[in-house]
Amino acid sequence: MDTEYTLQCFGSAALTDSSRIVGFRSQKHLALLLYLAAHPHRVLSRDHLARLLWGSAAPRSRHSLSQALYDIRKRLGPLSMRTQARSLSLDSSSLSYEGIQMEEAVRTANLGDAVAIYRGDFAPNLDGVGTEHYEEWIESERVRFRNLAQVTLRRFLKECDSQGRWGEMCLAAFRLVKIDEFDEAAHRALMRALWLHGDPQSALEHYRKLEEVLVAEVGVGLSDATKELVNRIRSSGPSGSPSPDSGPAELPLIGRADGFKALRSHIETARGRVSQIVIVRGEAGIGKTRLLAEAGRLARAEGFNVLASRCFRSESDVAYGPVLEGIRPVAEAA
Length: 334
Fold this sequence. Notes:
The protein is mainly α. It is built from 13 helices and 7 strands.
């Protein structure tokens, strides 16, 4: 049976098809579906499910359970359940469950997919729907996925930073900050990403808010690493931007991860004052200029002076033209 439905659980629990949210007669019915989807390989006792959501296994609660199962079958199809007299299980092929999707994405190291799936806490709209035991299960899943999201987001941030994907890094850092507003490393990653993405003013504004929360409200001083980053943003030029010819409207750096990683390695090697010549070559239009612009942006962010010049066939008769263009900013600043 082809999957037609997705059971969302992050940010808000909901059953969706390709174009709409599928409604249920009661939030308890959605809560039951969520619990069944989270246990795809378990045969569950009807009495257990009745107690979990309706508080007892009395006939009235069993009748409410039957109504809920009928409501679910009506949405997903009659073959969505494997039922017996005293137990039942959900046919996992009847829908896609985001909890399993996220775990699979993490297991296979598809970090971008995992980050995209996790939009917020687990099923916040189902608080108070079931019994105390159901609430305990919801909270345990919430903590488990929140911890998994934090680990995944930190790994994804490192991946984005190493490949110059500053826009994606901004979004991931913002989500990590939302999970834990006192995670200073996450705030620092967000400021760095905003800066490198060409929006230093937002980075500095975020720093001011961070300072207000951690220092004024919590009484905790900011780390030297955060202060050093802010000083670098402030001293990187009149606009605070590490690259004067780039801005936040640029498209993401796509398909050049290996090239950027190689250039980043050369930048790190240059810290040891090792002279190098790196040639970037390829067909016209494949992204060489953009790749070098991002590498220059990173080098400025790491404290290097970057001199840039271009050669044009029409200017081949200008003596030392590229050299003069490259050193002009330094000469004007002297």
